[in-house]
Specification:
- The chain has about 200 residues and is α+β, with helices and mostly antiparallel strands.
- It folds into two domains: about 110 residues, no CATH class; about 70 residues, no CATH class.
- About 25% of the residues lie in helices and about 35% in strands.
- It is built from five helices and 13 strands.
- The strands form four sheets. It has a four-stranded antiparallel β-sheet. Strands 3-4-5-6 form a four-stranded antiparallel β-sheet.
- The termini are far apart.
């Protein structure tokens, strides 16, 4: 008998600033609304399914509010990894996916958070000016090789630079890929890539 598939959900508690990583089976997630608290008891992620959409309420360390984010239920249950971001800061506020994909991203997020001067406070144009410039340089080289494309078939895209990330959006279908650009691991990751594929909207 095969082991039941599970999902790993992670976020940063805005109260104690610790990583919260919770594992739930697909059955547990689908059966009812899920309340996934931090051990400190002062914050929690809420997850429920509304038809073909997964709806999450995520307390945000970076802006101090609770974000309501959604994605297709199929993606929530089956994608290797999903990252939901704070619109105000561009930083990841919640991760969902397979354990082996989520844990490295949590470590990277912790490294990024260590650079923040204080909760809810931004200083400078970017979280790390040097890392951002290096990531943009790597993106420029990948683009020059024609290495940026979308699963819809398009090679036309737009770039948006945020506080600690860069977003590439397909000009034809609107699909987006987010490139973290806040810490050394982010730079190492982009340096290893010959091409970037935007996940197109169906």
């Amino acid at each position: 008998m095969s082991e039941e598939k599970k999902r790993t959900i992670a976020y940063l508690c805005p109260e104690c600033r610790q990583s919260v990583i919770v594992e739930r089976s697909l059955f547990q997630l689908a059966a009812s609304r899920n309340h996934l608290p931090c051990p400190c008891g002062k914050s929690a992620v809420e997850v429920e399914f509304n038809g073909d959409r997964a709806v999450l309420e995520v307390p945000c360390l970076f802006c101090g509010t609770t974000h309501t984010v959604t994605c297709p239920t199929r993606d929530f249950l089956h994608r290797r990894a999903l990252a939901f971001s704070c619109a105000a800061s561009g930083l990841t506020c919640c991760l969902v996916g397979e354990e082996q994909a989520v844990f490295p991203e949590v470590r990277r997020l912790e490294e990024t958070v260590d650079k923040l001067p204080d909760r809810g406070k931004r200083e400078g144009t970017f979280l790390d000016e040097v890392i951002m410039q290096e990531v943009l340089s790597e993106l420029k080289e990948i683009a020059a090789r024609g290495g940026i494309s979308c699963t819809c078939g398009s090679k036309q895209w737009r770039l948006k630079v945020d506080y600690s990330s860069v977003s590439l959006t397909c000009a034809d279908c609107g699909g987006t890929i987010r490139i973290p650009a806040g810490c050394a691991d982010d730079l190492d990751d982009i340096c290893c890539k010959d091409k970037l594929v935007i996940h197109g909207r169906q």
